[in-house]
Amino acid sequence: MTSTTSWVRLTEAERAVLASTLDHLGVGTVILNEAGQILTSSDTARALLAARHWAITSGNPLVAPDRATDEDLQKQIQSALMAQPGNPVIHCMTVAAVRESSPLRLLVKSIPRNTALDTQRRAAVALFLRDALHCLAPRAEVLQMLFALTPAEACFARLIAAGASMERAGRQLGITRNTCKSRLRSIFIKTGATRQAALVGLLRDSLVWL
């Protein structure tokens, strides 16, 4: 995996490989274009959403079956579509259980703009989802894929998410305080968090942790 994985920098084939990797972890992916229409969806995503009667058709918007959930979803997607460069939007939500299906964890994440790409095929929003009953360990590799962190940043973020202070994380990784501060600043930019407490909450409340 590259050191700065980002969905916008990858070709469609490369995104498919990453989606397949997440599939093996039980995490589904849905990629939307600038119009909020589905560009691609992984096998896991289609299975999870079909079991809950969501409308998931390539070229159309993603639609939740109940009105309240769909309104919340569309609000978060629109917010992600309006994200400004350098100010990513990341939102986590839990969709309540429906009949025999368990709750669904859903993360909506904006993808940085790249004007060199065709806007109709541009990956603008990534959705990551999984069954709430499926335990997902906070692996550094998953952090890299979801938040475009470098391997070093992902390892640092994983310790912070686990409750370590910046100083303690630095000691465990054998890095200086200045390096810790630099990594934390970069992680803030990539996740959209502005404080360490908010970062911990984001990671713990995301698909990465729960």
Commentary on this structure:
The protein has 210 residues and is an alpha+beta fold. It folds into 2 domains: 7-131, PAS domain (Beta-Lactamase, 2-Layer Sandwich); 140-204, Orthogonal Bundle (Arc Repressor Mutant, subunit A). Helices cover 41% and strands 14% of the residues. It has 8 helices and 5 strands; from the N terminus they run αββααβββααααα. The chain has helices spanning 12-24, 43-50, 67-81, 140-147, 151-161, 166-173, 177-191, 196-204, and strands spanning 28-32, 38-41, 90-95, 104-110, 125-131. It has a 5-stranded antiparallel β-sheet with strand order 2-1-5-4-3. The longest helix has 15 residues, at 67-81. It starts with 11 loop residues before the first helix and ends in a 6-residue tail after the last helix. Mean pLDDT is 81; it is low at 1-5.
Distance between the termini: 24 Å
Structural class: alpha+beta
- Percentage of residues in helical conformation: 40-55%
Number of helices: 8
Which CATH first-tier class of the largest domain would you pick?
A: Alpha Beta
Tell me the count of domains: 2
Poorly predicted tracts of residues: 1-5
The CATH architecture term of the largest domain is 2-Layer Sandwich
CATH superfamily of the largest domain: PAS domain
Largest sheet: 5 strands, antiparallel
Oligomer: single chain
Average pLDDT works out at 81
Strand order of the largest sheet: 2-1-5-4-3
Strand content: 5-15%
Q: What does the radius of gyration come to?
A: 17 Å
What CATH calls the topology of the largest domain is: Beta-Lactamase
- Tell me how many strands there are: 5
**Shape category:** globular
Elements, N to C (H/E): HEEHHEEEHHHHH
